[in-house]
Amino acid sequence: MFLLAVFFGTLPTGPLYVAFPLAVALRSKGASISNIVIFLSAWACIKIPQELVELQFLGIEFMAARLILTIIFVALMGIFIEKLIEWTDNRQIGISRG
Asked: What residues have CB less than 8 Å from 6, skipping those under 6 apart?
């Protein structure tokens, strides 16, 4: 699912605010928080036209390095945020019981 989130986040070229209603729809369909964060981050950071411009002006090495590092950190951020939300939800449940 991670790769699908990255793939679908890279396709559109519109502004980021267009992605938020799509993210809400994905969440209502059962998508995980990490996949939604990955989708939104990919939408903001990875665009096919942007990659082509980087390739043309900065070279294949730069483009590949930035793309790989961006995908790695987007995935880590998605996992971290999902774990953080789970932790805060569990903490709130503990506080409300105490």
From this structure: 38, 39, 42, 46, 71, 74, 75
